[in-house]
Amino acid sequence: MRQNCIDTIDTTTAPLPSWGQWVKAGVKMVRADMLQLVEIGRIWSMRAHHRRQLHDISDETLRDVGLNRAQIREQAQKPFWMA
């Protein structure tokens, strides 16, 4: 039964996309990739900024959130691309 279904699909009559359609699809993919790269850059920038700010947190605030200086140092030393 499954073989009969596959045989009914005629791929020779499917219209091929025009060059204009190929270009539009390519531009769309590149635009999506660029937006994704911008978003990754924004995330990395925020992550680096927050890690630099960790040094300014007071000891009292650290106690409130249950962290110590060693944990803060460990987080601050991570590269910006590591979560």
From TrEMBL:
YjiS-like domain: residues covered: 44-73
InterPro entries attached to this UniProt entry: YjiS-like (IPR009506)
One Pfam family here: YjiS-like
Top-level division of the source organism's lineage: Bacteria
Name of the protein this chain belongs to: YjiS-like domain-containing protein
Species assigned in the record: Candidatus Terasakiella magnetica
Lineage: Bacteria, Pseudomonadati, Pseudomonadota, Alphaproteobacteria, Rhodospirillales
